[in-house]
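Intended use. Records like the one below are meant for learning the mapping from a protein sequence to its folded structure. Do not use them to infer anything beyond what is encoded.
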Amino acid sequence: MADQAAQSGPQPGGFCHVEIAADDLERAKAFYGAAFGWTFQDVPMGEGQTYVIYQTGSGGVGGGIMTPPPGMPKMVVNYVLVEDVDAATAKIAAAGGTIVMPKTEVHGMGEMAHFTDPDGNHMAVWKSTHG
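Structure written out for the chain above:
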Protein backbone atom coordinates (compact mmCIF):
# COMPACT_ATOMS: atom_id res chain seq x y z
CA MET A 1 0.00 0.00 0.00
CA ALA A 2 1.44 3.35 -1.02
CA ASP A 3 2.05 5.91 1.70
CA GLN A 4 -0.38 8.71 0.84
CA ALA A 5 1.53 11.17 3.03
CA ALA A 6 4.52 10.72 0.71
CA GLN A 7 2.43 11.50 -2.38
CA SER A 8 2.42 15.11 -3.46
CA GLY A 9 -0.78 17.08 -3.79
CA PRO A 10 -4.30 16.49 -2.61
CA GLN A 11 -5.75 13.00 -2.70
CA PRO A 12 -9.37 12.05 -3.48
CA GLY A 13 -11.54 12.87 -0.48
CA GLY A 14 -9.21 15.66 0.64
CA PHE A 15 -9.53 19.41 0.28
CA CYS A 16 -7.98 20.62 -2.98
CA HIS A 17 -9.07 24.25 -3.41
CA VAL A 18 -10.49 27.01 -1.23
CA GLU A 19 -12.40 29.78 -2.98
CA ILE A 20 -12.80 33.15 -1.27
CA ALA A 21 -15.35 35.77 -2.34
CA ALA A 22 -14.17 39.40 -2.35
CA ASP A 23 -15.74 42.67 -3.46
CA ASP A 24 -12.28 44.16 -4.18
CA LEU A 25 -9.73 41.72 -5.61
CA GLU A 26 -6.76 44.08 -5.19
CA ARG A 27 -7.65 44.68 -1.54
CA ALA A 28 -8.00 40.92 -0.97
CA LYS A 29 -4.61 40.25 -2.58
CA ALA A 30 -2.97 42.98 -0.49
CA PHE A 31 -4.52 41.59 2.70
CA TYR A 32 -3.70 37.89 2.18
CA GLY A 33 -0.26 38.69 0.77
CA ALA A 34 0.67 40.88 3.76
CA ALA A 35 -0.96 38.67 6.39
CA PHE A 36 0.19 35.26 5.14
CA GLY A 37 2.71 35.74 2.32
CA TRP A 38 0.42 34.26 -0.34
CA THR A 39 1.29 34.78 -4.01
CA PHE A 40 -1.23 35.47 -6.78
CA GLN A 41 -1.87 35.02 -10.49
CA ASP A 42 -4.71 36.88 -12.23
CA VAL A 43 -6.65 34.81 -14.76
CA PRO A 44 -8.89 36.81 -17.13
CA MET A 45 -12.32 35.17 -17.40
CA GLY A 46 -13.82 37.35 -20.15
CA GLU A 47 -16.43 40.08 -19.89
CA GLY A 48 -14.08 42.08 -17.63
CA GLN A 49 -14.04 39.38 -14.94
CA THR A 50 -10.86 38.15 -13.26
CA TYR A 51 -10.30 35.03 -11.18
CA VAL A 52 -7.26 35.24 -8.89
CA ILE A 53 -5.39 31.99 -8.23
CA TYR A 54 -3.43 32.02 -4.98
CA GLN A 55 -0.70 29.81 -3.57
CA THR A 56 -0.25 29.64 0.17
CA GLY A 57 3.51 29.15 -0.10
CA SER A 58 3.41 26.62 2.70
CA GLY A 59 2.77 23.61 0.50
CA GLY A 60 -0.84 23.66 1.67
CA VAL A 61 -4.01 23.92 -0.32
CA GLY A 62 -4.28 26.98 -2.54
CA GLY A 63 -7.34 28.33 -4.20
CA GLY A 64 -8.99 31.28 -5.82
CA ILE A 65 -10.45 34.67 -5.07
CA MET A 66 -13.41 35.88 -7.07
CA THR A 67 -16.02 38.61 -7.06
CA PRO A 68 -19.40 36.89 -6.76
CA PRO A 69 -22.03 37.77 -9.34
CA PRO A 70 -24.97 39.92 -8.21
CA GLY A 71 -27.34 37.98 -5.99
CA MET A 72 -24.78 35.32 -5.05
CA PRO A 73 -23.95 35.35 -1.34
CA LYS A 74 -20.36 36.11 -0.34
CA MET A 75 -18.84 32.96 1.18
CA VAL A 76 -15.81 30.72 1.35
CA VAL A 77 -16.26 27.47 -0.62
CA ASN A 78 -14.10 24.45 0.21
CA TYR A 79 -13.58 22.02 -2.70
CA VAL A 80 -13.09 18.28 -2.14
CA LEU A 81 -11.13 16.33 -4.76
CA VAL A 82 -13.06 13.45 -6.34
CA GLU A 83 -12.38 10.95 -9.10
CA ASP A 84 -15.89 11.19 -10.60
CA VAL A 85 -18.24 14.17 -10.09
CA ASP A 86 -21.37 12.20 -11.05
CA ALA A 87 -20.58 9.40 -8.59
CA ALA A 88 -19.70 11.91 -5.87
CA THR A 89 -22.92 13.89 -6.26
CA ALA A 90 -24.94 10.66 -6.17
CA LYS A 91 -23.25 9.71 -2.87
CA ILE A 92 -23.74 13.23 -1.49
CA ALA A 93 -27.48 13.12 -2.27
CA ALA A 94 -27.85 9.59 -0.85
CA ALA A 95 -26.10 10.70 2.35
CA GLY A 96 -28.55 13.59 2.87
CA GLY A 97 -26.82 16.45 1.05
CA THR A 98 -28.44 18.71 -1.53
CA ILE A 99 -26.91 19.40 -4.92
CA VAL A 100 -27.24 23.17 -5.47
CA MET A 101 -25.23 23.37 -8.71
CA PRO A 102 -24.98 20.26 -10.89
CA LYS A 103 -21.81 19.15 -12.62
CA THR A 104 -20.33 22.05 -14.56
CA GLU A 105 -17.26 22.13 -16.80
CA VAL A 106 -14.72 24.81 -15.89
CA HIS A 107 -12.93 26.19 -18.98
CA GLY A 108 -11.37 22.87 -19.94
CA MET A 109 -9.66 22.61 -16.53
CA GLY A 110 -12.04 20.25 -14.80
CA GLU A 111 -15.52 19.64 -13.51
CA MET A 112 -17.24 20.78 -10.34
CA ALA A 113 -20.55 20.60 -8.55
CA HIS A 114 -21.72 22.54 -5.49
CA PHE A 115 -23.73 21.07 -2.63
CA THR A 116 -24.91 21.73 0.88
CA ASP A 117 -24.43 19.22 3.66
CA PRO A 118 -27.32 18.35 6.02
CA ASP A 119 -26.37 21.34 8.22
CA GLY A 120 -26.53 23.78 5.31
CA ASN A 121 -22.78 24.23 4.81
CA HIS A 122 -22.00 25.10 1.18
CA MET A 123 -19.15 23.06 -0.34
CA ALA A 124 -18.11 21.71 -3.73
CA VAL A 125 -16.46 18.74 -5.38
CA TRP A 126 -13.77 18.99 -8.07
CA LYS A 127 -12.27 16.67 -10.66
CA SER A 128 -9.35 17.98 -12.68
CA THR A 129 -9.09 17.09 -16.34
CA HIS A 130 -5.31 17.62 -16.14
CA GLY A 131 -2.93 14.90 -14.97
